[in-house]
Specification:
By secondary structure, chain A is an alpha+beta fold. Chain A is built from eleven helices and eleven strands. The longest helix of chain A has 28 residues. Chain A is globular. The termini of chain A are far apart. Chain B has 144 residues and is an all-alpha fold. The chains are: A alpha+beta (347), B mainly alpha (144). Chains A and B meet through β1, α6, α10 and α11 of A and α2, α4 and α5 of B.
C-alpha cells in the first residue's frame, strides 16, 4: 500500500533520527513538483531541538531517465567537496528499499533561489539576466577545465576513449529500444552524426549531462545558489554540456540561450572561463547530438508512460509535445532547405 | 456518440486549468493539474486530426514511392515500395492506420538513407515530406 506524504515524512524523520543518533521530529513535508526521475520531498525537521530542512529524493517505480542513484550521489559529493559549483550537501544515501519502500538519498536544502524557467522571463529579472548568464556559463566553463581525476569522479565513472562515439552509441540504443513508432527524423539525424563523428578532442571533463534552465537555482540578484540533477553526469567532452545548455528547446525565444542571452554571448563566456576555443564544426556535431539525446529521452518517457508501471503526467508531457518540438528542431538543423527558424546556421 | 470530441477534451483541459488547479493546496498538486490540463489539450488537438494526418502522411509516402521507384536507381526493396503504393489500411481504426503508417515510415527511412548518398532531389523531397508531417502534427501546448 502506498504511503501518504505525511506518512513518508514520519518515516524520514525516524530514519534520520537513527542515522544521526539524535531525536528527530517531523515539522512539515511537501512534495516538490517537476522531479521526473525521482520523487522529491522537502522535509522540515527538528533535530535535537534545532530546525533543519532536507531534500529527500526517492526512486519511483519508473523514471524519465534510467539512472543509478549511487552514481548521482557520489557525483554530488565529488562536486560539493571540490567547490567548483554550488550543489546541495549530500547527507546520506540509502540503497536498501526498507525504510521508504524504495531506495532514496537525502541532501541539505538550499533555501535561496528558485528553479522556475518561466521565472526568468519576469520583468524583474531583465536587469540581471546578463549577470546570471555570466555566472551560469562561467560555472560550466570552470567545470570544463577541471580534470576528472582532480574531482575524483574517475574512481566510479568510466573514461571513454572516444566520448562522442560512446555517447552516440548509448543514445542510439535508447532510441532503438524505446521508440514506439518508426522515427525517420531521428534516423536521419543518427546517420548524420555517424557520418560526421568528430575525432576525440582530448579534452575530458565531468559532464553534468543535463545542464539547462530548470536545473539550477537562481536568485533575483542573478546569483546561482545550486546546480541540481546530476543523474546523467559522466566523463566526456565538455562541449557536450555547452551544446545541451544552448538547445532551442530550453528557450521560448529561439535566439536566446536558456532564456538569458544570445547563444554567441553564452559561448563567449564559456570559452573565457574554460580556456577552450569552440570549433564550429565540432560544436555543430554536439548541437545536433544534444537534440538527438533529448529526443531519445522524450521517446523513452513516452515508452515508459505507455508501457510502464507509472502514469506520472510529466512522463506523458515529455513524451508527446516534446517529441514534436525536438523533431522540428532537428528538421531545422538538418533539412537542406532549412530556414533556420529554431537555431542559427553553424558551419 | 460524442459530438466534437476534440472540442470537449479542450473544454475539459480549460476547466482543469481554471477551476481545479487554483483550488489545489500544494505546489505538487498544482503542477500535476497543470500538466494534466496541458496533456488534455494535446489530446484534443490530436483527436481531431489523427486519422486525417495519418492518411495524409500515408498518401504522401505512397506518392513519393511512386516517383522514387519510377525515376531513381533505387533497387533495394523496390517491390515492397511498389506494393505499398497500392496499400490501404485494414480499417479506419487508428490502430490500423498506425500500422500502415509505421510500415510506410520504415520503408521511408531506408529510402532516405539511400537518397542521402545517391539522389539529392529525392533526399530533398523526403525532407520536405517530413517537414509537412511535422507541421501537420505540431502541438500548440504551453511548456511545463
Amino acid at each position: 500500500m502506498e504511503t501518504t506524504v505525511e506518512q513518508t515524512g514520519q518515516l524520514i524523520a525516524a530514519y534520520l533520527g537513527k542515522h544521526w543518533q539524535t531525536p528527530c521530529h517531523l515539522q512539515g513535508i511537501t512534495q516538490i513538483p517537476g522531479g521526473a526521475s525521482r520523487q522529491t520531498y522537502l522535509v522540515h525537521l527538528l533535530r535535537n531541538g534545532q530546525a533543519i530542512s532536507v531534500v529527500v529524493r526517492r526512486d519511483p517505480p519508473s523514471s524519465l531517465i534510467d539512472t543509478e542513484r549511487a552514481h548521482e550521489y557520489k557525483t554530488y559529493a565529488a562536486v560539493f567537496n571540490s567547490g567548483v559549483m554550488p550543489v546541495p550537501e549530500p547527507i546520506v544515501l540509502e540503497e536498501a528499499p526498507g525504510d521508504l519502500a524504495h531506495p532514496f538519498s537525502i541532501s541539505a536544502f538550499i533555501a535561496a533561489g528558485k528553479a522556475s524557467p518561466a521565472g526568468l522571463d519576469e520583468a524583474a529579472m531583465e536587469p540581471v539576466k546578463a549577470a546570471l548568464a555570466q555566472r551560469k556559463w562561467s560555472l560550466l566553463g570552470d567545470l570544463a577545465k577541471l580534470p576528472p581525476d582532480q574531482l575524483g569522479v574517475n574512481s566510479f565513472m568510466s573514461t571513454p576513449a572516444h566520448p562522442a562515439a560512446h555517447e552516440l552509441n548509448y543514445w542510439r540504443g535508447v532510441i532503438e529500444a524505446d521508440a514506439l513508432h518508426p522515427q525517420p527524423i531521428a534516423a536521419a539525424a543518427l546517420r548524420w552524426l555517424e557520418k560526421h563523428l568528430p575525432a576525440p578532442s582530448g579534452q575530458l571533463a565531468l559532464v553534468h549531462g543535463d545542464f539547462r534552465t530548470g536545473n539550477y537555482l537562481y536568485t533575483d540578484s542573478g546569483e546561482i545558489t545550486a546546480v541540481l540533477d546530476w543523474e546523467m553526469a559522466h566523463i566526456g567532452d565538455p562541449l557536450e554540456d555547452l551544446a545541451w545548455s544552448l538547445d532551442p528547446l530550453w528557450s521560448p525565444d529561439l535566439h536566446l540561450a536558456g532564456r538569458l542571452v544570445p547563444r554567441a554571448a553564452a559561448i563567449s563566456i564559456w570559452e573565457q572561463a574554460s580556456g577552450i576555443t569552440v570549433d564550429p564544426e565540432t560544436f555543430r556535431w554536439w548541437q545536433i547530438f544534444a537534440s538527438v539525446k533529448a529526443l531519445a529521452i522524450w521517446l523513452s518517457s513516452a515508452h515508459d508512460y505507455t508501457t510502464g508501471t507509472t502514469k506520472e503526467p510529466i512522463l506523458a508531457f515529455a513524451g508527446w509535445p516534446m517529441i514534436d518540438r525536438q523533431n522540428r528542431i532537428l528538421l531545422d538543423r538538418l533539412s537542406p532547405d532549412s530556414q533556420h527558424q529554431y537555431a542559427e546556421a553553424l558551419a | 456518440m460524442i459530438n466534437q470530441p476534440g472540442a470537449q477534451l479542450r473544454d475539459l483541459a480549460v476547466r482543469i486549468a481554471t477551476h481545479v488547479l487554483p483550488d489545489m493546496t500544494t505546489a505538487y498538486g498544482q503542477a500535476d493539474a497543470g500538466l494534466i490540463s496541458g496533456l488534455l489539450m494535446a489530446l484534443a488537438q490530436d483527436f481531431e486530426r489523427a486519422a486525417f494526418n495519418r492518411m495524409a502522411d500515408i498518401e504522401e509516402i505512397q506518392q513519393l514511392f511512386k516517383v522514387a521507384t519510377a525515376n531513381s536507381s533505387y533497387l533495394q526493396n523496390t517491390q515492397a515500395l511498389q506494393a505499398f503504393t497500392a496499400d490501404t489500411p485494414a480499417s479506419l481504426h487508428l490502430q490500423d492506420l498506425d500500422q500502415l503508417h509505421a510500415r510506410g515510415f520504415e520503408m521511408l527511412i531506408d529510402l532516405h538513407a539511400w537518397a542521402e548518398n545517391n539522389n539529392p532531389e529525392l533526399n530533398q523531397a523526403i525532407w520536405s515530406l517530413l517537414r509537412r508531417h511535422s507541421e501537420r502534427n505540431k502541438f500548440e501546448v504551453a511548456g511545463p
